[in-house]
Amino acid sequence: MLAASISSAGARGIETRGAYCNDSYFNSDGAGITGCINLAVHFGNDTAGVGIVGATPEQKHGSKKDPLASLGRITGWYGREFDIGKIHYAVDGRIGIEGGAADDVAIAEHDFFHSLFGVGSKKLTSTKDTTVIGGLSGWARRDYLLNDPGAWAVELTPFMHAALGNDAIEGGGGLLLELQPPDQTKGLALLTPLNGAYAPTFGGDGIGIFADARGVARETLYAAHANHFIAEAGVIAQTTLWNVVVLGASASCTTEPYNGVGKADCKATLQLGGRF
Prior knowledge:
The chain has 276 residues and is mainly beta. 6% of the residues lie in helices and 54% in strands. The protein has one helix and 15 strands, in the order ββββββαβββββββββ. The longest helix is centred in the middle third of the chain and has 17 residues, at 101-117.
């Protein structure tokens, strides 16, 4: 799984963000979440958004058959960020649908973008039942400046995250090492599991590397095949042009997300946004 971002509160009035992720950049490893679209707006300390995420058995590996069924989620979020002392927090609620109608949308998105990349996939069939999903999620972070103020900031950020709902029950944490220009007042985005359970939020400019580990008690995207421990590592970068246009990119790989043919799940995410 890739992940949705977490960050410090925005310094400007309104910021929008669209993000697209896919594993086709890695020659379709056929493991776990294969595509996503997130659209979000950040205003003050609040974030609202909607996202589509799909998990599909894209291909067989050797003589094994991928046990993962095609399953999609469409989720809406509303969240708020706040500070207590030197620790930054966020809490969000989510509601949406999984399977059935969500599968139809996720498969259409999957096939459209794969056609752009010239990557084929076997015919996918949506599930028959549509399930209402919902829950609460949150994270906390603490930034430690590792060099003198006024220069490019080198920071070490420990973070924790958790999701509770009928779609996902999981929790984890990790470390982010970030390098940011001296004029930045917001920390880099952190990547949490990109499974529809976490609201997309926003971060400042810079580059960073991160590592994360999480325990999974329930994950309906992977059904009964879900592994109960997943580790992840990756890179993230963001730049702002003309103080308005935001460009971002990230890439990460997890350990085997479910008991099946995929030994890892690698994905890249591209982001385009604006600040107003």
